[in-house]
Each structure stands twice: as C-alpha cells, then as structure tokens.
C-alpha cells in the first residue's frame, strides 16, 4: 500500500528473531525527522481549525461574536451550535465500542472548562487562533463543582470499561473482629493528565463519500466504524492512517469531539482541514485519570496473615458520562484474605469525562493498596516483604482461579537481592547519607492483567523468498512495530531482514487495540499465525511436488527455518521458499491469521503480569525536598519478545510512578473549576534530574495458557508497585505517612522540625 | 495571536524611536513573551526585536574592577564565562538553576530581568488580574495560591517574581544600565522593581521606550566570592520555579562575619533583599544560631497571602541553610544540580 511507510529490515542476527534486543525499526526515521506524524500531513488546499474552549465549568454560552471572528482576515468559517451541519448520530447514541458522550457542538450547554464551544476554520493557524479569540464568549455561569466535597457520591452501575462495581467474599466484619492487629487508612489521588508528547491531531480530507483521516490512533480499524457512524458511511469508506504516535497512554483510543468536528468541517467546506490541540486543550476533552479517595480496613492474625481486606474507592467522573476509575479492583488478585471486599462509589463533577490512562484503576489502586499494605506490615510488626510473602496468594483471591503463571516470588527474591533489601531497618528515620539527608527504603508489588483482544494479520511469501506481513497495529513510540515484526519473522521462519512489515493503516487487517498491555500478545499472535498459515500452504506445495527434496514428507512434517523448509527427520534435505514457489509457478503465497485467547483458558485461569518494585528516596531533613535515588523493579510477564524494548517500557512505567508519587496533579481553581496548571511548565512530570539509576530485571516466566506464544504485556505494570514503593520509602526516611498524592514538601514540612 | 508588526532595528536609538508607538513591546529571545502572546495574555501590536542590536553581547571587566554584562548576553554564556563565575559564583549558580539548558542557551540576561510572574491567574486571560488588566481584581486571592507571595504583597496582587538570576544580582548590589529617549541612566537593582501596592501593572521603574542595555556588578561584590551560594527549593529536581530561593554571601574575617548579603526569591514580586537579616549577622560568628536568627529577621514581616503559610517556615529554613552553605565556602567547581539541596558534594572549597 503506497501510503504506508516501509520500515527497513532489521540487522541480520544469529538465532531467532524473538528474544533479541533489537532497536526500534522506526528509530532512524524518527531521529532524522523522516517519520511523519498525523499533523505533518498537509494536503493541498488544507485549512486550519482551532476551537474555542469554555472558560466556565457549568452553565451556558450566551453569546459568541461570530461576526468579529469572520471579519478577521483569513477566517473561512465559524462553526457553532447555531450553524453546525447535521451529524448522522447524536452523542448519546454511542453505537460503536468505547463510545463516549462527546462534545460536537450539540447545544450551548457548558459541562466543563475546556469543552469545545466553537470551531474556527481559516487559511492559516494564526488566523484561526485569532478568530477563536475574537469570539469572546459570554456565559451564564452556575456554581462549579470540582471537588469531592462539592457533591454527594452515588453507586455506579459499572466501573472502568463495564466491570462490576462491587466484589465481595467472606465476612469483613468477622475478619476484622478476629484480627490481632488492624489498620484503617484513607488515601487520595488527584486528577492526572496523559500529556502525550504529541498533541491530539487530525487531518481530514473527503473524496465523495470517502474520507481519509490522518490522526494518531490506538484502535485503527475500530475507529473507522466510529467515524463512519458519525457521518453515516460504512467503515470501509473511512481510511485512518496512523503510522506513528507520539504517546497515547489510553487517550488516543477514544474518539473525541474535536476530531468529529474536524471531519465535519472538511465536509462542510469541501477542503482538507487540520486540527491540532494546543497543550492546554488537552486538559478536558481527551480524558484523564479521575481523582480517587480510597479507604481501607485490614485485619491481621498473630502470624501477620490478613483476616480481612476492604477497599472502598470513590472516583470522580463527569456529569454526563461514566468512566469510574476502578481502583478497588487492584485488591482482587494480589493478597490472600478469607474476607475480601472491593467497592466503588462515584462523584459527578463539572469536569471532562475521565478515561483510561496508563494502568487505569491499577495505578491509583496500587498506589493506595501498596501504601496500606506497608501500614499493615508495620502494624503486624513484620518487614514489608515478609508480610507480603505471608499473604502470598496461591490462587487469585477474589475468583479463586489458579494463576496461568505467577513468578512473583522470584520477582520478590531477585528484586530484593539486587536492591539489598535485607539490610533495611524496620524503624523509620534510621538511615542518612554522607550529606545528612534522610534515606528511606520502600517496596510495592506490581500487578497488571494480561488481556487479549481480537486481531487479524496477513502474511505473503514472495517469489524471491522474502515476505510481507500486514496488520493495522499501532506503535505509540514504545517499539510495538519492532516486537511485532520480530514475532512475524519467526512465524515465517525468516530473518527479520527478509520480512517487510506494514502497519498503522486501517486498510490492513484489523490489528486490534493498542491498549490494556495486550497489543503484542494479540497482534503478535495474529502475525505469527498468518506466517504459520503461509508456511503450511508452502509445505503443501513442496511435499506434493515430486521434484522437491521434500516430496512425500507430509506425514513426517517439515520445519521452516532461515527461509528454507527442512524435513523434520532429516534437516539436510531442504529447499528454499523461493525454489518451491518458482517450481510451482506461484509468484505470491498468502496466509492469514487471527489472534485471540482460547476461551477455555480464559475461563479457567487468572492471568496477570507480576512484579516487585524497590525504591530508595532521599529527603532533605529540613527543606523536605524529596528525590528518588534508586529504583529496582523485577517483573515476570511471560515470554519477552524484545528485552530492550520491554525493559524500556518498564523504565517508562516506573518513571511515571515517580511522577504519580511526587509531582503530577491537575490543580482546579475551586471557584471557576478551570485547571490552573494546564501546561508542561506547571503540570510537573519527571525530568531527567528526577530519574535515578534504575534496574529492571526481567524474571523468566513460562505461561502456557495466556496464548500459544506465552506473551503477556509490559506497557502498564511499571507504574503499579512503584508509586507505593516510593511513598513507603518516604515514610521510612522521615517517619511521616503522607496519604495524599502527590507527596511534596509542604506535607513533610509540617511534621519535621528545623532541628 | 493578533496581527502585529515586527521591526528589527539596527541601533538602540532606532529601537527606542520605534517603541514610541503605543502597544509596542521589546523582544529578546522571546522565551517568555512569545508564550504570553500565544496564550493571549499580552497582545502587542508591534514587536521590536532587540536581538540584532550591536554591542550588547559583551561581558567586560571595567577599569574600576566592576563587570558589565551586555543585555543580549545569553544566560548560558554568562554562567559559563570563567572570569564571571569566579568573581560572582552565586550568580552563575542561580543562572544554572533556572529553566532548562535549551532555554538558558536562548534566553538573554536583559530579558531575564523583564520576565513576568508565573502566577497562573496572570497567565489565564479568563481570570481577573490587576496586573494584566488594571482594576479587574485578583483571582489569586482566595484561589490556588500555595506558591504565592509572603512578603510585600498587597490586596491588589500576591504574585511573585520568578527569576533566579535577579535574586543573586540583588544580593550583590547589581545596577541596571538603561537607555531611553532622555539618554542613559543607572538604577540599582534593589530600586528597579516595584512592589504591587495599588498598581501591580507597574512592575519596574522603566519609562515607556526605555531599554535595559547592561547589568553591572560592582567590584566590591567580588569580595564575597569565597562565601556565596544560591539555594533553590522546589518539588521537581530541575526545570521548575523556586518555591523559595536564597542568595547568600558573606565576608568572614577571623571567624567573624564582617558583612552579609541576603536576597530571597519566590517570596515577593521583587527579588527580596533583607537588610534586617544582613544587619543581624554582622559581627557574629558564622554559627547555626546566627543563621537562624537571620532567618527569623528575614521573615519577621512575612504573612501568608493565602494557603501558603508553609512558605514562611520553609523560607526560614532555606535562609539558614543558604547562609550555612555560604559560610562553608564556595565550592571550587560548580556542583552538579546547581543550587539544589541535592547538589553533589564536591568537597573542595575555593577561595579560602
């Protein structure tokens, strides 16, 4: 396909492709600027769209100065609820998967600050920007509700993406009653924003009733159905090109209003239209990690075994849509307890709808759970690692299912060894560095589900013995294409250099969703199966061809290796793919494959990646500035396709954990509801100086049930465990237990004297 | 962004003449101004680009021993000038603690003096701000103000000045050389910035059209070279503005402080020189008790402007620590993470 980008083949390496620490296939394109991101596509005649976004959180737009905007040189059109052309569906219809009630200028209501209230389209970005400013909206504002205490909570029907809000087993009160030690503690996590480096963007161009969209997208083929629904055209009339994403983290999987309006503007004006969000516009319409309050009660017997574990979360969502951060679910599958209760409540605020953000539920839930477990260990008088081992779950605690594989003990052991955990004093404020800074050590367990979705792929063997593999997958920058390419090459028995890999285009077989840490497993399984299918067809040709040295080997079987088929019983008898095809007069031989989990395995087993994270922090004893000085993470996540990229994903997750623990927080003005730090100068994420020396240990794990290849995922698990480990290390350094994230100077200052 | 005129003058006189047009703004590297323009915080109709003016890019040692820094010298270039950083190490340390390497490579020292507050309400055109729109009110009061001023604020404005560089300059009695239609004049940096009072939109003593052409550091400031430090506390280890910072400089003879200099950042709408703290230190031994006494003096008049009382306690601790660091002696080499509580311990002490 001419508008996919051909990636260079990999370097020839000895041995198989999977398991090799290959560098990213797209790295050269990116560092040389040759990689085209969505917003780099500028078709002839393209117009620029800029939205005006609400500055109140609740109320109504009473006026927009459309005349002033239209009078500005270069402005072509102003789209408001008054003149917006019709769409095929309403925001409430939600006829496609992962559909959210989104803003498409359906009315003059303002439901959160940052909501799109008009779109200005102009010949230049500058003219569109100034046009949007000239709209000078006026409002009828009502009191903004942006804090937990501004509203009553309610019982949601579902949490996360369709999960039950309550799960319980055993009797919590009875468990607490018979406990020797108990804790109860409440934690708070703030609203956080994805802040992908690449802003959300869309370039839309129509050709009759077909539309081509350049937009970063984590779910390419699924999204063709979504955009098709909005415009009343079949999915196959929508082409989405998304060869590269500059980060997605869940926020580029869900269609948002600005995208629909861009497609609409292009249709309305008969010209291509580009819309790219400003950084501040990414705080509202494109999802976030909702704030949580999490309350725990735990009881322990004389041996330190849990008798009860209760986890109640209240999560924030918008007034018009539900995405309830499923934080309590983090307690389902980790620590054994005869009584277990996880429940959720929700609070509707005048905010943009939250959405999945890297480890949705698990990140917030783990931050609080791992902190609470640290408090429980202390109450039980046990080392935090020993406490976790005593409460090690041999089967998944809530479901009682066996784990498909669980090398968490090995993670604990290898991580603790590398970190030197055994030297940790039990009591806080026991360690200092040479400069007199307080030093503390903490740990947390990492846990993340290992889901699979549905994917398809094609493999084509070519006359010269090389191959083409295709799937509409998404690479968010983490190197998915490289890992998928490696798997595909192994399915074909070819070196990666012999395999051309196409992805990132919705016209290719559906690669599924790049989310849930399941993309490599799902799309990888499909690619591998497609290769196997092609090889099976090739085998048919060879074993039935009298001229082939493989003739008659049908019952014995052949193996595909290094571009040749070999007789299974006599590897010296072999023939190259090209020779087989040439003799058969076949120029191309195609195979197809699907990736999906075996339903019986899915029913029978609990499937998770596991890990253990150990953190060292330093705290200035008077100034209370905090810095993470060491992080060790040991993770077991099934078969690792590319150890370099897997480690890189885990580093990235752990660094995100630093941000969660110490820095990240969207600050709403409590009166207007506006986010006052909607930029990268004031919404702090870690910078290089915040990132300490880190070790990632990839713990060997053979999981026979997750999928035929044994692949789990590493995209999200790095955040889990890390946040709690850092919070616990801060307690160990200072003796101060801060239960509100992010943990900062002010919280510690009050608790420490100047001496 | 509004349509605006862009002018590139070739002389200071030409620049000043161009600025006669109301609504004009001088452009240095634009690391602050362009962001404000994109955000709709300020909308000049004429930008006068000063970066091509001749003769403003030099760092010179003057015959009287003072040092003159042209307004167009880049922050990074000044920090890495060997003679400068030897004479005024706390200024170099302050410069290197600010922004990021990329911004320091672009930003000019004259522009640094003119950077605007980071108050989120100033940066948000939908909020009331007396600084941005005189008479409109101050939404920072009663708002999210944990980072706001604890000294010198008024009922009209509780913003702070964000510069690190200016804090060190203030401690060391820098003067600012200004040129305008009426000729050249020099103003001590301690008089350059105005506290908000009832007119927070008036931030400096610059008259319309006046340009900063140079910054001068006096010869006697070099007397502190052996005992001067800049300390900056913030949540993020780098690339963040100070919650509180301090530049401390001491002259110590025979175990006694003969003269002390102290200026604070992040606490007021100007770099805050504390004469009271300096006076409290003169004649004392450089002990923890003396530094704590000075810290108390520095914040005697401090009061929270909102939810920021913690900054008073934090500020006292920063002052005591900065003075202790200065007393210990200027490190021979600039530490990694300049000005940070996590700065490397370089061991060797210079100038003692």
From TrEMBL, chain A:
Region (Disordered), start-end ranges? 1-24
Q: Matching InterPro entries, A to Z?
A: Ald_Oxase/Xan_DH_a/b, Ald_Oxase/Xan_DH_a/b_sf, Ald_Oxase/xanthine_DH-like, AldOxase/xan_DH_MoCoBD1, AldOxase/xan_DH_MoCoBD2, AldOxase/xan_DH_Mopterin-bd_sf
- Name all Aldehyde oxidase/xanthine dehydrogenase a/b hammerhead domain ranges: 32-143
Q: What is this protein called?
A: Xanthine dehydrogenase family protein molybdopterin-binding subunit
UniProtKB/TrEMBL annotation, chain B:
Specify whether Nucleotidyltransferase is a keyword of the entry. no
Gene3D superfamilies of this UniProt entry? 3.30.465.10, CO dehydrogenase flavoprotein, C-terminal domain (3.30.390.50), Uridine Diphospho-n-acetylenolpyruvylglucosamine Reductase, domain 2 (3.30.43.10)
Which UniProt keywords are present, listed alphabetically? FAD, Flavoprotein
Entries under Pfam families matching the protein: CO_deh_flav_C, FAD_binding_5
Q: Does Flavoprotein appear among the keywords?
A: yes
Enumerate the spans annotated as FAD-binding PCMH-type domain. Answer: 1-222
**Stored PROSITE patterns:** FAD_PCMH (PS51387)
What PANTHER family has UniProt attached to this entry?
XANTHINE DEHYDROGENASE FAD-BINDING SUBUNIT XDHB-RELATED (PTHR42659:SF9), XANTHINE DEHYDROGENASE SUBUNIT C-RELATED (PTHR42659)
What's the protein here called? Xanthine dehydrogenase family protein subunit M
Source organism (scientific name)? Jiella mangrovi
